[in-house]
Each structure stands twice: as C-alpha cells, then as structure tokens.
Design brief:
Layout lengths: L1 E6 L2 E4 L4 E9 L4 E9 L6 E7 L4 E3 L7 E6 L4 E6 L8 E9 L12 E2 L3 E6 L1
Parallel strand pairs: 2-11
Antiparallel strand pairs: 1-3, 3-8, 4-5, 4-9, 5-6, 7-8, 9-10, 9-11
Length: 123
C-alpha cells in the first residue's frame, strides 16, 4: 500500500504562484509513475502532469509552460510548481501514484490517490 498526502494549496490572486507537495509513504518502491490531477466544481477530473520513474514528464496542453512537476526521491515527495495562476486553475488538486510498467501518460490508470489540496485563484 502507498499513502499520499498533499499540501501547499491556498487562495491566491491571479498571476501568483504556488508549490504543491505530495508526501508518499508505505511501499513506495513499487511506484512507477506519479501525477497531479485536478477537479473543478461541476467538471470532470483532468490530468495535469505526470512524472515517470526515470524523470520523464508529461503535461496537459492547458498548463504547459506554467506548471512544472518534479520529485525528490530521497524525500519521497512529489511537487507541482504552479506559476502565473489563472482563475480557471481553481480546483481541488490530487496527487496520484501508479505501480507497474514504465509508461506514464496522463491517461494511464492510477492505483493510489491522495485526499486533495484546494487551490483557489481570484481575479
């Protein structure tokens, strides 16, 4: 089992920045891919970014150039740096992890999910 705990969300003005963190614990050696997802009220959950075990990254077109996913393997922590925030970035942001295979697109199934951290952007 893997446990994921997100932090770093908050309320910011448009144009601001946030860094989200996701601390992983448990049997983390099995993790092959980690990602960030978000869900706005009344909308479906969407993939934001993923990072593979080898460090390869994928991003949704809507966040390319503004969001950066990274990880610190020594700390078992995943990060999402969000710059130039827009009101449409307002959502609950979730961390997810997947085991098995070395493929890490936004569309792959994820096995473990955190509880989420809220990001609210005001104009």
């Amino acid at each position: 089992q893997v446990q994921l705990v997100e932090s770093g969300g908050g309320s910011v003005q448009a144009g601001g920045s946030l860094r989200l963190s996701c601390a992983a614990s448990g049997y983390t050696v099995t993790i092959a891919c980690m990602g960030w997802f978000r869900q706005a009220p009344g909308k479906e959950r969407e993939g934001v970014a993923t990072i593979a075990k080898n460090g390869a990254t994928s991003y949704a077109d809507s966040v390319k150039g503004r969001f950066t996913i990274s990880k610190d393997n020594a700390k078992n922590t995943l990060y999402l740096q969000i710059n130039t925030l827009r009101p449409e970035d307002t959502a609950m942001y979730y961390c997810a992890a997947a085991y098995g295979g070395d493929w890490c697109p936004l569309t792959r199934p994820f096995n473990y999910w955190g509880q989420g951290t809220q990001v609210t952007v005001s104009s």
